[in-house]
Amino acid sequence: MERILTIENMSKSFTLHNLDKQIKAIEQIDIHVKEGEFVGITGKSGSGKSTVLKCIYRTYLPQGGSIWYNSQRYGPIDLVHASEREMIDLRKNEIGYVSQFLHVMPRTTARELVQQALLEMGREHEEARREAEKILRHFELDPSLWDSYPATFSGGEKLRLNIARAMVKRPRLLLLDEPTASLDNASKIKVRELMEQLMSEGTTMLGIFHDLEFMNNLCDREYSMQNGRLVDAVERQGAGV
């Protein structure tokens, strides 16, 4: 299998202007991911795991290193130096991101959120509606909520909607930042089922999980982080593709 993602010597710091101080978040990060793999990142809170994912998605801009992504649209592209237009395009069509939190435009319903994810990829409206309803049913989001605003949802409902919005696009690369953090066991099973389906269809995943049991027989390789650095890499018996 070819590599879809190669991260080399990546670093990221944050400046505390009021204290005139720089805080190193991550440094000397080297990660490689092959097409179709599921790679996990573990470590204590504050070890830098989420910063790695946000640098890949370019929510954060790394100070050093490279993030080579093998794009369908652009070929090999270093996400550190990609333009804003290229990043917006990649987020719409190739790279998905699931966080623990749902950030949405006000006065947008749950159904509209999921449909919009497909419409911005150029899908027809009827197909987008059908696929949106299918995935909302999968995550057992009550149909009475589909045309409601997510601001009124519980934490678990918001998280399920967030996952549905990212997964409905069937991205080539899916970044997962604690996607099962506040879900009950039944909802976790739904997430795992869809992850396994997406992997069987060729989606590559890089995810952060504190629930190590959830990763069993799913993860191909596990990177462990401590104090902003990778300290270990372990091959696991993943699902494989």
TrEMBL record:
Pfam families from the UniProt entry: ABC_tran
Q: Name the source organism.
A: Brevibacillus nitrificans
Entry-linked PANTHER family: AMINO ACID IMPORT ATP-BINDING PROTEIN, GLUTAMATE_ASPARTATE IMPORT ATP-BINDING PROTEIN GLTL
Please give the GO cellular component terms listed in this UniProt entry.
plasma membrane
Q: Which InterPro entries match?
A: AAA+_ATPase (IPR003593), ABC_transporter-like_ATP-bd (IPR003439), CP_lyase_PhnL (IPR012701), MetN_ABC_transporter-like (IPR050086), P-loop_NTPase (IPR027417)
**Which gene is transcribed and translated to give this protein?**
phnL
Give the top-rank taxon of the lineage listed in the UniProt record for this protein: Bacteria
**Chain ranges of the ABC transporter domain:** 5-241
**Gene Ontology MF terms in the entry:** ATP binding; ATP hydrolysis activity; lyase activity
Family, according to the entry, reads as follows: Belongs to the ABC transporter superfamily.
What name does UniProt use for this protein?
Answer: Phosphonate C-P lyase system protein PhnL
Q: Any idea where this protein resides?
A: Cell membrane
